[in-house]
């Protein structure tokens, strides 16, 4: 008996990964990706190619605490077993936190309501020997000025000035619901930004810009003019990928994932 793709069980994976050694989420020809690592294990188990559909892409070197991806496959295995089977074959820098069957109409990307990203900055004289998931910044920063700049990003605005190069989208308008800064220790600072969607490198460009405010290169109020200009050249540098985490993906309550 044959099954169509739509008739096959819809399996969702919640994934955590340390992205330092990968070229990003999406399968690429120039190196290992998170998607390719998981798809290759699925192919080994199922003896056929399976395609993963994720909540979205993360760039080279970016990490995730809560990435979601789905695949459809008819097999003899219970949905909950996929996490254990995949973790047995995957490298330790990729972990499947759980697997479960979802309704047939559920889609990991199309049903996303919002996402939250974290960006971690280690502000001290020397880099960490233990933590690869932070952006090391050795200089002095005015963290109060940085805090003052964050509210200028909140709201539904055109963020083209913070869009990465060679990115093609229908619209660069996004809604940011919060942009917070938490100090976890005397040296470790964490930005959290939540929105209904993000442009390529948008969070890293936002963080790079507010770090320049902390350096005294511009005033917090300059953010308003940068956004209005829609000019990437007006914004600051792109912060390195190593400090960025996909922290949370929110779906409609009816799917019971949040």
Helix content: 10-25%
Number of domains as seen in the coordinates: 2
CATH architecture of the largest domain: 2-Layer Sandwich
Give a quick account of the main beta sheet: strands, pairing sense, barrel closure: 10 strands, mixed
In one word, what is the shape? Answer: globular
Per DSSP E runs of 2 or more residues, the count of β-strands stands at 10
Secondary structural class: alpha+beta
Order of helices and strands: EHEEHEEEHEEEHHE
Strand content: 25-35%
Task: Tell me what you see in this structure.
With 258 residues, the protein is α+β, with helices and mostly antiparallel strands. The chain folds into two domains: 5-110, Alpha-Beta Plaits, CATH 3.30.70; 114-248, Pseudouridine synthase I, catalytic domain, C-terminal subdomain (Alpha-Beta Plaits, 2-Layer Sandwich), CATH 3.30.70. Helix content is 19%, strand content 28%. It contains five helices and ten strands. The chain has helices at 34-46, 81-89, 143-149, 202-214, 222-229, and strands at 10-17, 53-54, 63-72, 94-102, 114-123, 135-137, 155-158, 173-183, 188-195, 244-250. Strands 1, 2, 3, 4, 5, 6, 7, 8, 9 and 10 form a ten-stranded mixed β-sheet that branches. A hairpin with a 4-residue loop joins strand 8 (173-183) and strand 9 (188-195). Helix 3 crosses helix 4 (202-214). It is globular, with a radius of gyration of 20 Å.
């Amino acid at each position: 008996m044959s099954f169509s793709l739509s008739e096959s069980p819809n399996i969702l994976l919640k994934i955590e990964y340390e992205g330092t050694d990968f070229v990003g989420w999406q399968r690429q020809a120039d190196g290992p990706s998170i998607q390719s690592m998981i798809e290759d294990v699925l192919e080994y188990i199922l003896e056929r190619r399976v395609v993963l559909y994720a909540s979205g892409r993360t760039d080279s070197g970016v990490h995730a605490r809560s990435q979601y991806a789905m695949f459809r496959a008819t097999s003899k295995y219970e949905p909950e077993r996929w996490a254990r089977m995949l973790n047995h074959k995957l490298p330790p820098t990729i972990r499947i936190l759980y697997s479960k069957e979802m309704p047939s109409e559920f889609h990991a990307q199309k049903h996303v309501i919002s996402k939250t990203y974290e960006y971690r900055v280690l502000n001290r004289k020397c880099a960490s020997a233990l933590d690869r998931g932070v952006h090391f910044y050795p200089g002095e920063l005015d963290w109060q000025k940085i805090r003052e700049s964050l509210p200028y990003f909140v709201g539904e605005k055109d963020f083209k000035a913070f869009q990465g190069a060679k990115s093609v989208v229908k619209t660069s308008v996004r809604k940011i619901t919060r942009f917070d800064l938490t100090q976890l220790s005397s040296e470790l600072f964490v930005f959290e930004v939540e929105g209904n969607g993000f442009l390529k490198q948008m969070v890293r460009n936002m963080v790079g810009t507010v770090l320049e405010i902390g350096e005294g290169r511009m005033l917090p109020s300059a953010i308003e003019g940068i956004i209005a200009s829609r000019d990437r050249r007006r914004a600051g540098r792109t912060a390195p990928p190593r400090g960025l985490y996909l922290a949370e993906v929110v779906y409609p309550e009816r799917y019971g994932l949040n």
